[in-house]
Design goal:
Number of domains: 1
Bound molecules: fe (ii) ion
CATH class: Mainly Alpha
Keywords: Iron, Metal-binding, Oxygen transport, Transport
Number of strands: 0
Number of helices: 4
CATH architecture: Up-down Bundle
GO molecular function, one term: oxygen carrier activity
Organism: Candidatus Lambdaproteobacteria bacterium RIFOXYD2_FULL_50_16
Oligomer: single chain
Protein name: Hemerythrin-like domain-containing protein
Mean pLDDT: 95
Order of helices and strands: HHHH
Structural class: mainly alpha
Low-confidence stretches: none
Shape: elongated
Family: Belongs to the hemerythrin family.
């Protein structure tokens, strides 16, 4: 599976958020690197933990901006965040709970597809609103 590369199609035109999305992409790439080079479960587990924590921070950042600037589509957007966190938390539980559970191509594909679709779909929708409120 190819690594995910940042490109302008992924930009939401808000620099602070683009930077966070780049970090998420790098973390997913690190997980994939670690998986394909057969790194230990401990290494994979650390990267997975980090991804979960950073995802949570990033969602909190976006949701705080929505609240501060009265974003009308907050509810739908937040629902997508919650569904993703619960799915990744489940995967993480399976990973830590079973020594047989491996992060496979299907998991990597789910993570990369979700992130790209979310950034280009619902994240891109808030750009005009937040930019008009001066968010950078
Ligand atoms: Fe985002
Ligand atoms: Fe989002």
């Amino acid at each position: 599976m190819a690594l995910l590369n940042w490109n302008d199609n992924l930009s939401v035109r808000i620099p602070s958020i683009d930077e966070q999305h780049k970090v998420l992409i790098n973390m997913i790439n690190s997980l994939q690197d670690a998986m394909s080079s057969g790194d230990s479960r401990a290494v994979l587990g650390d990267i997975f933990d980090g991804l979960l924590k950073y995802t949570d921070q990033h969602f909190t950042y976006e949701e705080a901006l929505f609240a501060e600037h009265g974003y009308p589509e907050t509810e739908d957007h937040t629902r997508e965040h919650k569904a993703f966190v619960s799915k990744v938390t489940d995967l993480h539980k399976q990973f830590t709970g079973s020594s047989n559970f491996m992060i496979g191509v299907d998991v990597m594909k789910f993570l990369t597809d979700w992130l790209v679709n979310h950034i280009q779909g619902v994240d891109a929708k808030y750009s005009d609103h937040l930019l008009s409120k001066g968010v950078r």
